[in-house]
Amino acid sequence: MALEIVWTKRAQVGFSEIVDYLDTHFAEKEIGEFIRQTRDFLELLSHYPEILESSTKQKHLRRGPINKYTILTYRVKPRKKQIELINIRSSRQRLPK
Q1: Percent helix, strand, coil in the chain (nearest 5)?
Q2: Which end of the chain has fewer CB atoms surrounding its CB within 10 Å, N or C?
Q3: Could you give the residue ranges of the DSSP H alpha helices within the chain?
Q4: Phi then psi for 45, rounded to 5 degrees?
Q5: Is beta strand 53-54 parallel, antiparallel or unpaired with respect to 62-67?
Q6: Over the stretch 44-69, which tens digit does the pLDDT of each residue have?
Q7: pTM recorded for the entire structure
Q8: φ, ψ at 37 (rounded to 5°)
Q9: What is the pLDDT of residues 26-42, one digit of tens each?
Q10: Burial (0-12, 13-18, 19+ Cβ within 10 Å), 62
């Protein structure tokens, strides 16, 4: 049974920032490809919630790549039958200082 995917505000903002970055630096094709890859990965994740490794710092979180440029952090809520997306960030962007 697939778990429901729930986006936090932080994950929504991170996703939007990646799309904005792609829009500024790449063609429309790359934006579509990123959205498709993300959608496909989240579908897979909903069926296999332990696909990514547990965080070494916080055991209740899982973290790993959606693709070679994008990192996802999430937690599984088995009682609610949900996966809560905590953050999505791109390795192409510079982190704020």
Answers
A1: 40, 30, 30
A2: C
A3: 9-25, 28-47
A4: -60, -40
A5: antiparallel
A6: 999 999 999 998 888 789 999 999 99
A7: 0.87
A8: -60, -40
A9: 999 999 999 999 999 99
A10: buried
Sorted by where each begins, the domain ranges of the chain are 4-69
Is 80 in contact with 36 (CB distance < 8 Å)? no
User: 78-87 burial by CB neighbour count: b if 16+ within 10 A, else e?
Assistant: eeeebbbbbb
What is d(CA 39, CA 8) in angstroms, rounded to the nearest whole number?
A: 16
Distance CA 85, CA 10 (A): 9
Does 97 score more than 60 pLDDT? no
How many residues are there in the chain? Answer: 97
* Two tokens, residue 87: 């953050």
